[in-house]
Amino acid sequence: MARLNPDEVIISKIAADFPEGFRALFITYYKPLLRIAEKMIGVEFAEDIVQDTFLTIWNNKQSFDTILSLKSYLYTSIQNKCLNVIRTNQQFEKYKVEQSVEPGEEYILDEEVISQLYQTIDLLPEHYKEVMLKSMEGESIAKIALSMDTTEDAIKAYKRRAKQILKKELGDKAFILLFL
User: Fold this and answer.
1) Where is the RNA polymerase sigma factor 70 region 4 type domain (predicted)?
2) Helix %, strand %, coil % for the chain, to 5?
3) How many domains are contained in the chain?
4) Greater model confidence, 109 or 58
């Protein structure tokens, strides 16, 4: 019998209403999701967005086993919730990423483009996908190399090739790659 990856174990435990599945989800993804939310909307609302995402999962845990990619689901959920906050605050046209981008850099994220990006990442070869997702979580090249038991040069090559594939697949929406 094939072994389940950690995300599949989390999904099955949450869907089966086992509290340790939700605990594992929280421990694994809270900080990376919080960093993404902080980058998109700032510290003020980020924790509320992440907590709301976890609450939504808890309230809908019976249908949680239909999730194919946990990381994609979580990151898309966070980004969509952040975009809703931005829209509500009438800041959708332009907003500043305050903590991780150099001062003065601004960009617009389109919900459809982000969704398409994650769908395209899911189609990448496994090692490219892993590098891109970890990179998007804010992990350094060195940390990714260590976790994948390979060299930093190999990780850089994987990331470069993954971006080339994404650029080809995303076409005119490839501008989003500037932020990865």
Assistant:
1) 116-164
2) 75, 0, 25
3) 2
4) 58
pTM of the model: 0.48
- Whether residue 5 is contained in a domain is answered as yes
Amino acid at position 44, single letter: E
Q: Which amino acid is at 76?
A: T
> 124 with 117: CB under 8 angstroms?
no
Residue-range definition of the domain harbouring residue 87:
1-109
Q: Across residues 168-177, what is the average pLDDT?
A: 66
Q: Which residue has the tokens 């090739």?
A: 161
pLDDT value at residue 103: 43
Task: Indicate the pLDDT class of residue 90, thresholds 50, 70 and 90.
Answer: low
17-54 pLDDT, tens digit per residue, is 777 888 888 888 899 999 989 888 888 888 999 998 88
How far is the C-alpha of 129 from the C-alpha of 165, rounded, in Å? 11
- Do 61 and 28 have their domain in common? yes
33: which 2 tokens? Answer: 């999701």
Q: Do 33 and 87 have their domain in common?
A: yes
The sign of the CA dihedral 92, 64, 23, 1 is negative
Instruction: Name the token pair of 5.
Output: 């990856």
